[in-house]
Fold:
Amino acid sequence: MKYALQIAGLHKRFGDTLALGGIDLALPRGQVLALLGPSGCGKTTLLRCIAGLADADDGEIHLDGECVAAPGRHLSPDDRRLGMVFQDYALWPHMSVYQNVAFPLEMQGVKPNARRPQVEWALSLVGLADYAERAPGALSGGQQQRVALARAIVARPRLLLMDEPLSNLDKGLRESLALEIRGLIEELNLTAVFVTHDQHEAFALADRVAVLQQGRLQQVDSPEALFHTPATPAIAEFVDAGTLLDGRLNASGLAIADTQLPMAAACGYRGDVRLLLPRRALRLCAPDDGLLRARITGRLFQGEHLSLQLTLADGSALKLHASHAPERGCQVGIDLDVTALRAWDDRAHLLDLMPHADVTATATG
Ligand code: ATP
Structure:
């Protein structure tokens, strides 16, 4: 299969810092990939290597089957035929909106008369056909980012690269621009890669999300798979997939706080475990009705739901959304869908937990 983007064995060091530790990726045409990870994990370096703005130490990058980077080969950014959108818009303030959008065509030697229909097409796609003569400084942040988007797509790039495209915008605008960008990508059948440290931005825009940590890809999956089946506790925490708690698998089952659940690891592992309790697996109930008992220690009204912090008998805290809840300080029960639990052993290897058919809990405390 010919991929729009294919990366094999990409390495990059800055002195003692390993920025990219062997990246392998393949992206089919028409897909959007988010590079997600904490600050310093190597996202920007990877994006810059794809763009041709940085040179890798080893490995290869292919665009539509064409090798654009390999040891001894480095195609210039202009020759890679990419569109780029930056966090800070990066528009030229002394040029009009029209001139900004026309610039990539000018660089490609397209004659002024031939430029006009393409610029008008790109501006109308982002809803700014009437703003061509304005200066970028006379536009809102969202409008400026739409101009940057028009400039990135005007020359019909084979790959669209975006560096935190929504992070300078406020929440409402982020959502509407995410919808617009998504619509545009689908309409034009674009392939895109974008960098973000915000899982909401990644989930809103991407077909696939690649989680990077310390220069290495940890998991590449759909947003749904990443959220529901994170490969490691660190990914679960990063995508805010629920509450992470410490537990212990022993001869009698799985111990969480003062409760013992009749569950075991399929491989027979005994010892400390890290547990993910997804919010959807937890339900508030009367103090004596749940598998776990807790006290409400935080209660925030968030419109559609209450965001609760609950403290278990051993002092560990968990987060839960509910439509109603008693006041702060009250004792409650928590019903737990044990089939939704995810557990890792003390070396962060995923465990296959086996729930008994009829789960009953016995308090040990
Ligand atoms: P952020 O979200 O903060 O931008 P990032 O995930 O994009 O972070 P990179 O900018 O790719 O991370 O940096 C990866 C690592 O390489 C970091 O440890 C960074 O300090 C280092 N690094 C990046 N660029 C350089 C450089 N030009 N010189 C030295 N070290 C660098």
Observations:
- The chain has eight helices and 25 strands.
- The mean pLDDT is 91.
- Residues 14, 17, 19, 37, 39-45, 197 surround adenosine-5'-triphosphate (CB under 6 Å).
